[in-house]
Amino acid sequence: MAAPLTTETFLADPVLAAARDAAHIAVARMTHWRTRLDEAAVSVKDNPNDLLTVADQEIEALVTGYLHRHRPDDVVIGEEGVAALSLEDLPGGAELAAGLCGPGAGDSARIEWHVDPIDGTVNFVRGLEQHCFSIGAKDLATGQWLVGLVAAPALRTVWFARAGQGAWRTGALPGAIPGAGRGDDTSPPPPHEHMFVRLAGTPAGRRGRVVATGFGYSPALRAIQLAALPLVMEGFDDLRRGGSAALDLCAAAEGRVNAYYERDLGVYDWAAGALIAEEAGLVVQRPDGPGELTIVADTAERLEFLRARA
């Protein structure tokens, strides 16, 4: 960016500010539900390990309601396809709303939002830290991806990117009010959490070649993925499987892994993370349709290697 990134410049961008508010809602409700899930609050989709919780549905509904209210001309596409819900209809919604910026449409283009309320639902249900909220924004007229934001409350980390302005990591949502809307966790974030760290992929000289991936739920897809794994590992020294596509993409953007690939992701899975990786300088292949590969890598050669083998 031409000027240093600050909380003020972040919040002055209407699309980033709207993504930030959506994440504020999601983080607060994930914190609320984290210790309240029981068997009655968890159901399955098409596979016993493809879980859906009341938290997924509520977060998506609230984020959709927020975006409809503040950006009525935009389109919102969520993983769960639930109806919008206003914060006014949520017990404690007024307290949660106190932490919102409430940005208007400003001068920004008409946006198509892709929302994953909880990426890594199995991890969330089982108390594992690798779960997050993910939101990506695309210009409806041009198809250009404009903004991506991923917020992982259990990791106390936020990643975000603005097209042409780089990818960044911070420890708290910009403009966060200590304690506002944080559910049961009212402790203020440490001062360093408001620092912005620019991401640039794998640091020069880092040893080892580590790849991240995920596995599908259907036996047929998993068979394809497992058959390809020995071929993939010919080019890598180790493998990581965290259970959240968005967090794996952010790990690549940070240089924690050299590459990430996965087949048959939904747009909501990669909408934010792919832009974050791209703005961090990685080479990105977005899928053209169902069953296709999503790949990010720190070099073009590594991406081509994965394209040929995965």
Automatic annotation (TrEMBL):
Keywords: Hydrolase, Magnesium, Metal-binding
One family name in Pfam for this protein: Inositol_P
Cofactor(s) needed: Mg(2+)
Binding sites annotated in the UniProt record for Mg(2+): E79, D116, I118, D119, D269
UniProt xrefs under Gene3D superfamilies: 3.40.190.80, Fructose-1,6-Bisphosphatase, subunit A, domain 1
Isomerase recorded as keyword: no
Name by which UniProt lists this protein: Inositol-phosphate phosphatase
Organism: Ornithinimicrobium ciconiae
Single biological process term from Gene Ontology: inositol metabolic process
Record InterPro entries: Inositol_monoP_metal-BS, Inositol_monophosphatase-like
Molecular function terms from GO: inositol monophosphate 1-phosphatase activity; metal ion binding
